Amino acid sequence: MQRTILAGIIGLVFGTGIALSGMANPAKVLNFFDLAGTWDPSLAFVMGGALLVTAIGYRFVLKRDKPVLEAKFNLPANRKLDVPLIAGSAVFGLGWGIAGFCPGGAIPALGLGEASAWAFVGAMLVGIFAARTVRLALEQRATQSA
Predict the structure, then answer these.
(1) Strand, helix or coil at 92?
(2) Which pLDDT value is given to residue 75?
(3) End-to-end alpha-carbon separation of the chain, Å?
(4) Which run of H or of E encompasses 102?
(5) In degrees, to the nearest 5, what angle opens at C-alpha 17 toward C-alphas 14 and 23?
(6) Contact 46, 105 (CB under 8 A)
(7) Mean pLDDT to the nearest integer, 47-60
(8) Residue 56 pLDDT more than 90?
(9) Which of 56, 99, 122, 126 has the most crowded CB, counting CB atoms within 10 A?
(10) How confident is the model over 44-70, as a mean pLDDT?
(11) Residue 40: left (phi > 0), alpha (psi -120 to 50), or beta?
């Protein structure tokens, strides 16, 4: 219960930051990518601010023996660049550039009444399900042929 409440509070802070910064507005995001036209550098400041806060926060958090609500830290062990990572990153970037939404901006946009966010989130969920289905099928095929 405590973990759920904390997750809700953190999500509220994140969503409020996304909404206040304008990153839930797809036009603002698309203008960031329009270097030859109506370029809007504000997204770079939002990302830079987030990276700075995260870098400082991690220095403090990782000095602890364990997280507050977990038995141990669950940090990624895989540091290699592989085809799924690169392909997923490319598809994510294409979707972000076409729609002006990424999950972090689309979900708060739902609460702002952004109609296109509903279509985006629905399509995103279908894409997640499709990618999971394909990945499981490929893993199953690899296991059977081994």
Answers:
(1) helix
(2) 87
(3) 44
(4) none
(5) 105
(6) no
(7) 92
(8) yes
(9) 99
(10) 91
(11) beta
CB contact burial 109-131 (16+ within 10 A = b; e otherwise): beeeebeebeebbeebeeeeeee
Query: Would you say residue 24 has pLDDT above 90?
Result: no
Q: Where are the alpha helices (DSSP H) in 62-114?
A: 83-99, 103-111
Q: What is the pLDDT of residue 97?
A: 86
Task: Round to whole Å and give the CA distance between 99 and 96.
Answer: 5
Quick one: CA dihedral 83, 77, 102, 138, positive or negative? positive
- Cα→Cα distances 31→109, 139, 141, Å: 17, 39, 43
pLDDT digit string, tens, across residues 113-135: 888 899 999 999 999 999 999 99
Encoded tokens for 60: 């403090």
Q: Which two tokens stand for residue 71?
A: 């038995």
Number of H helices, E strands in the chain: 6, 0
